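Contributing new records

If you add data, match the layout below exactly. Sequence lines come first and carry their own label; structure lines follow with theirs. Keep one chain per record. Anything else will be rejected by the validation script.
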Amino acid sequence: MSLLVPVDDPADPRLHDFTALTDVALRRVREPAEGLFLAEGEKVILRALRAGYRPRAVLTARKWLDALQGELADHDCPVYVADDEVLQAITGYRVHRGALASLERRPLPSLDEVLEGARRVLVLEDLVDHTNVGAVFRNAAALGVDAVLVSPECADPLYRRSIKVSMGAVLAVPWTRAEPWPDAVNGLRTRGFRTLAMSPDPAGVSLREADLTAPVAVLLGTEGEGLTAAALARCDASVRIPMSAGVDSLNVAAASAVVLYALGG
């Protein structure tokens, strides 16, 4: 049974997991190094618990206890209870729906484990915006992608913002880091995947005419720059989404939704 612990001091050292949440650079280093990630809001926290992630600690306003206590009953982590002002002083911002959970990261699965049985795979190269990563994962879950691979320099799918934007989809869609990069693209081809590079290059094949027959892996590149030349060189084809009205490309999250919808179920 989780232990309820009232707290009123934002400097309480027991709250270490929940401090400096507005410092992205710090948290990007701290969270993986300390083996934790954060889930925000009772719906996302419950999804994380139901996905089998073990909670280290919970920080919540009292009014959200009833929604969380049932799922926390089998865990012995501390549940720190604070009022809204103390929560904001601890985290540096107003917490969405007044609840945060610190959970233990699990070792990332191997490529073979993630790709076993997969037919439609999405590959993200070096996306830097956690909001975009979360949105892409939500699209992947909604449109039936079997697995997502992220390059070593891609933003952390388990960063708080990514999880929140994905509505917890990053906790359900199988994913791992594609290493070594970009040679992992060759590994996809060896495993029988047709690799398609999404690019605004007018020389590319229109999405309307592209061969989307599974098994297929679709690559999306970083915001602004797109896919690197090294990644493009390892793909079977370059595919573009036809644009109108002088617009050259879509936001990467929007582009992912368009191409995944085209892939079908």
